[in-house]
Design goal:
single chain, 272 residues, alpha/beta
Length: 272
């Protein structure tokens, strides 16, 4: 693994980790709400690294990236961060692979920079809109009940909510050492960052309808955070999208059934 530092939009320093075949097609992994690049360890440490150039980004406000007080509401800022990573690292038509909140960021990029510089998009347990009744309808009551705790400045409340979120993400609980590592990097995200992420209204149906590059939709059939109906909605709005429903996998489908997810990602990448 190699650590990378990139100057993102407005000079915010972003952190990424890179591994794999430097001559292979790049895959840029973009984590979800309150997570970090380490969420993708079962991809970065897999045999995908023999073929592809694998890069995992810490979004602004997360992991080892800077955590400015402002800059989370503007779609163009998120788009600028992704553009900076692609340009700074010289990623040649990367696949943008986003988990949960991650597709919101990849679609920010497409909205402002188009698709010419990317090879394709992957939505893993993804959402593509926020702030409306329609957006809320694909989120489970169990997740929504935790939201106030994500914003709490009380450490115990915040950690309790994040611990519950993590347990919702998996069909089977991770090993204790993995769970506490995850809890640590979730808790490293300031509560005001989490609040800013969930406060911006977004609707990407127009972007979805105009996508020209290939799209893979991966979703666990036991997802307890984003209802699997979200995958059906995305498929209906994206012409020619491929869908992989991972049986027995939860919201973190790429973790719960890493071999199946990695094979679906490989098949998708090889077909580009």
């Amino acid at each position: 693994m190699t650590s990378r530092r990139i100057a993102g939009a407005h000079g915010v320093q972003l952190h990424a980790i890179e591994t794999g075949n430097p001559n292979g097609r790049p895959i840029l992994f973009i984590h979800g709400f309150s997570q970090c690049s380490l969420a993708w360890s079962r991809q970065l440490g897999s045999d995908l690294a023999e073929t592809y150039r694998l890069v995992a980004l810490d979004l602004r406000g997360h992991g080892r990236s800077d955590k400015p007080r402002e800059g989370y509401a503007d779609s163009g800022t998120w788009a600028g961060d992704i553009d900076a990573v692609i340009r700074d690292l010289g990623l040649d038509h990367p696949i943008l692979c986003g988990w949960s909140y991650g597709p919101l960021v990849t679609l920010d990029y497409v909205r402002h920079h188009g698709e010419d510089a990317i090879g394709g998009l992957v939505f893993a347990g993804g959402v593509t809109k926020l702030g409306t009744e329609e957006a809320m309808a694909v989120l489970t009551p169990e997740f929504l009940a935790l939201v106030p705790g994500f914003f709490s400045s009380d450490i115990e409340d915040g950690v309790r909510s994040l611990d519950s979120l993590l347990r919702l993400c998996f069909a089977q609980a991770p090993a204790a050492e993995d769970l506490y590592l995850m809890l640590g990097y979730n808790a490293w995200v300031p509560p005001w960052v989490r609040q800013a992420l969930l406060s911006r209204p977004l609707d990407n149906d127009d972007v979805l309808a105009g996508l020209q590059k290939p799209v893979l939709i991966a979703h666990g059939d036991l997802d307890a955070v984003v209802r699997p109906v979200a995958a059906d909605q995305h498929q209906a709005r994206i012409a020619g999208a491929r869908v992989a429903i991972l049986r027995g996998a939860g919201h973190a489908c790429f973790w719960d059934d890493a071999p199946a997810f990695n094979q679906a990602l490989r098949s998708f990448a090889d077909a580009l």
